[in-house]
Amino acid sequence: MTNNLLPRRAAVAAGTILVATAEFALLHSVAGVDLAVRSGSSTRQVTVAAVVVAAAVAALAGWALLAALERLTNRPRVWWTSVAVVVLLLSLLVGPPSGVGGGVKATLALLHLSVGVALILGLPRSRPKGLDR
Question: For the residues of 53-98, what is the DSSP string, one character each?
Fold first, then answer.
């Protein structure tokens, strides 16, 4: 990994976490959406800490996969984008439907989409052009 690549990808990951956190804060505090999800027969609150951890895990997993694909394949961006889109679609099928109420489901979908789209658009583009295969 080159010296320029680490700060660029770290900035994308950090920006994604900040976007998710700000989005949660706005929707929770300003719009009054109280995020709660069903887990089996119980209901649990979604906190800002959970949003930060989920966004960080997604960013780091995406970053790690992209780094591995850059070493293993001739077309890492194509493979990474394909996998990332599938993972985003799966997260939309699993996460938001567990929300308690329509507003919560919409908010969860928005959070999943904003993190996923930011990573899909940002991580592969953070690689300097001269380093493409």
Answer: HHHHHHHHHHHHHHHHHHHH-S-HHHHHHHHHHHHHHHHHHHSGGG
Torsion angle of alpha carbons 124, 55, 99, 120, nearest 10°? 0
The pLDDT, as a whole number, for residue 32 is 85
pTM for this structure?
A: 0.86
CA distance 133 to 130: 9
Task: Taking the CA atoms of 16, 18, 21 and 27 in sequence, report the sign of the dihedral they define.
Answer: negative
**Could you read off the pLDDT of 2-37 as tens digits, one per residue?**
557 778 889 999 999 999 999 999 998 888 888 889
